[in-house]
Write a structure and sequence with these properties.
- The chain is of the alpha/beta class.
- It has one domain: TIM Barrel, CATH 3.20.20.70.
- The chain is 33% helix and 20% strand.
- It has helices at residues 17-25, 49-58, 76-81, 97-106, 152-166, 183-189, 198-201, 206-216, and strands at residues 4-7, 31-37, 62-68, 86-90, 110-115, 133-137, 171-175, 193-196.
- It has an eight-stranded parallel β-sheet.
- The protein is globular, with a radius of gyration of 16 Å.
- Bound molecules: D-xylitol-5-phosphate and zinc ion (ZN).
- D-xylitol-5-phosphate binds next to strand 2, strand 8 and helix 7.
């Protein structure tokens, strides 16, 4: 399958947001990755609905929203209305994960679950068939620009195995510290979508960096 690149807008220049969104539109990137942080589930606040609205009014590619918030059920329909195509919630933030996933799908979005670095893949055994995407966090969520956690490769293989055994049709996304140093090994282990924030937006030529990442894993 074609491996996908999802630049994380968290690392964009917010003073030139439209310019950076257009850059992604005109690049080889596949998705926009949008990080919503509440300062409670993670120790940082990113941006909220008005900014997402501005991004989605210019974005011409799939909008992949990663919620790092407690009690995400409160905002599912709001994110659907704001243009999210995929809505990912954290396993660690959901008491009734099955209900949350069904609510996301009922709102017309694809449903994803993110796992923190310490959360084992095995917690997904009884929900994997319902998931469109699993996001393996390869850093502790909350900040861009952190170093990739090497244990991630093992988790990708375990998740790939679980998906195959279950006959599920779930995409594996990797989020945090993705660069040209780990992209190939991640996709070889089974990753389908690579999120990259700092590596793309802090590079000299983000369009080229996206193209390089894309060709590295395809
Ligand atoms: C971290 C976010 C990531 C972040 C990735 O909590 O979920 O999406 O933007 O940024 P980099 O690629 O800089 O690690
Ligand atoms: Zn993210």
């Amino acid at each position: 399958m074609n491996k996908l690149i999802a630049p994380s807008v968290l690392a964009a220049d917010f003073g030139n947001l439209q310019r950076d969104v257009e850059m992604v539109n005109n690049s080889k990137a596949d998705w926009f990755h949008i990080d919503i942080m509440d300062g409670v589930f993670v120790p940082n606040i990113s941006f909220g609905m008005p900014v997402l609205k501005a991004i989605s009014s210019h974005a011409s590619k799939t909008i992949d929203v990663h919620l790092m918030i407690v009690d995400p059920d409160r905002y599912i329909t709001t994110f659907a209305d704001l243009g999210a195509d995929i809505l990912t919630v954290h396993f660690e933030a959901c008491t009734h994960l099955h209900r949350t996933i069904q609510a996301i799908k009922a709102s017309g979005m694809k449903a994803g679950v993110a796992l923190n670095p310490h959360t084992p893949i095995s917690v997904l055994e009884d929900i994997i068939a319902d998931l469109d995407l699993v996001c393996i966090m390869s850093v502790n969520p909350g900040f861009g620009g952190q170093s990739f956690i090497e244990n991630t490769y093992k988790k990708v293989s375990q998740l790939k195995d679980l998906i195959t055994r279950s006959g599920a049709n779930t995409l594996i996304e990797i989020d945090g510290g993705v660069t040209n140093k780990n992209a190939k090994q991640l996709t070889e282990a089974g990753a389908d979508v690579l999120v990259a924030g700092s590596y793309v937006f802090k590079s000299e030529n983000p369009t080229e960096t996206i193209a390089d990442l894309k060709s590295l894993c395809n």
